[in-house]
Amino acid sequence: MLLTGTGRLAPAGLSPWAIVVRDGRIAWVGDPADAPPDAERIDLGHALVTPGLVDSHTHPVFAGDRSDEAAARLEGAPYTEGGILRTVRETRAADDATLERLVEARLRAALAAGTTTVECKSGYGLSLDEELRHLRIIGRVAGRVPLRVVRTFLGAHAVPPGTSAAEHAAHVADDMIPAVGREGLADFVDVFADDGFFDLDAAERIGRAAAAAGLGLRLHAEQLTRTGAAELGVRLGAASVDHLEQLDEAGVRAVAASSTVATLLPAPAIVLRDRLPPARALLEAGASVALASDANAGTFGGFGAMPLVIGLGATLLGMTVVEALTAATSGGAAALRRDDVGALRPGTAADLVAWDAEHEGAFALRLGSVRPSRVWISGEEIGLSG
Ligand SMILES: [Zn+2]
To answer: Would you tell me which of 54, 59, 318, 385 could form a disulfide with 296, CB atoms 3.0–4.6 Å apart?
Structure first.
């Protein structure tokens, strides 16, 4: 298959452009005048074309609605783990079919907005049985949707009632992670390492158990307080440290000097009226930066918001549009330790999106309203209904 266009192929900025797809992968990229002939030729005209977006941080397995809590917080109520525990109660009460329907709807909304690879965390179960149930639900839904799904076990998302953070961390490290590893239910382990959640000792214990089980590590770090979780992630070889709203200069230097990706989540920072992460400082220090949605039950509910997230990166976070788009494609892929998605170069998966726009600047200009007109995953066009 030969795809061509007279518009822009971003973030590389090639125009005009041509891509040859063979066996679901990109075989060649270049000027249409040099393209090998192909029987199947699709001309995308002036449309902006990008790699499929990679959303490397989402929490889609939950039931219930916490819009009331968001409203109360904006009137001054604090953000505590009580909100997560409310979702845990409602999610535990939901049967498999209900949760599968909810997760599938959320992933289809993400796909309809141009996300072709999505990371999905458990973490609203907190008990061994519930966490395993949620990871299996993600796996079953992954088999029914065309997106590429990466699973992350987040048993240390909050401290369940009746136990301490240290006790729960020990249970996660000693019982849950070995079970997740044995059953092959996740690629990564995540920890909410913050004040009022899990301290650095607890996070380190969980991180070492993840490594022992052959699972990658990612951390919720430096969101509410500057704890040193970013440096811990670097020391443990985490694929990514996520949030970083409170990161200071020393933290920026530590992340930039490592292969750990800095994953920035502007949407919940706005909803929580929090500080914004130091995107410019991270980029200038040479860090790998990803942008992700953090779509979840309580602090940002937008599944299908990645075009908005790119726009927020380019406006609020002070990134250029190309930096923001790169962070939402190859940056997200790096955060998931994947080199087969997030870029259009020979050898990568033919996951691409043609947008209802002519230039990547539309992600900033039309904040949140740029939509895909056509999407391909592994070279197969995906129907976008509704
Ligand atoms: Zn999160």
So the answer is: 59
Element (H, E) at 174: none
212 CA distance to ligand 1 middle (Å):
24
- pLDDT per residue over 4-26, tens digit each? 999 999 999 999 999 999 999 99
What is the spatial distance between Cα 114 and Cα 189, in angstroms, rounded to a whole number? 26
Pairwise CA distance, residues 67 & 284, whole Å: 37
Structure tokens at 94: 């939901």
Tell me how far apart the alpha carbons of residues 293 and 312 are, in angstroms, rounded to a whole number.
11
Distance 79 CA to ligand 1 centre (A): 14
Q: Give 221's strand partners.
A: 193, 243
CA–CA distance, 170 with 96 (Å, rounded to integer): 28
Task: Give yes or no for residue 81 having a pLDDT over 80.
Answer: no
SS3 226: coil
CA dist., res. 38 & res. 25, Å (int): 15
Q: How far is the CA of 131 from the centre of ligand 1 (A)?
A: 16
CA atoms within 13 A on the CB side of 17: 23
Kindly write down the DSSP assignment for every residue of 271-303, as one continuous string: HTT-PPP-HHHHHHTT--EEE---B-SSS---T
d(CA 163, CA 161): 6
352-355 vs 372-377, strand pairing mode? antiparallel
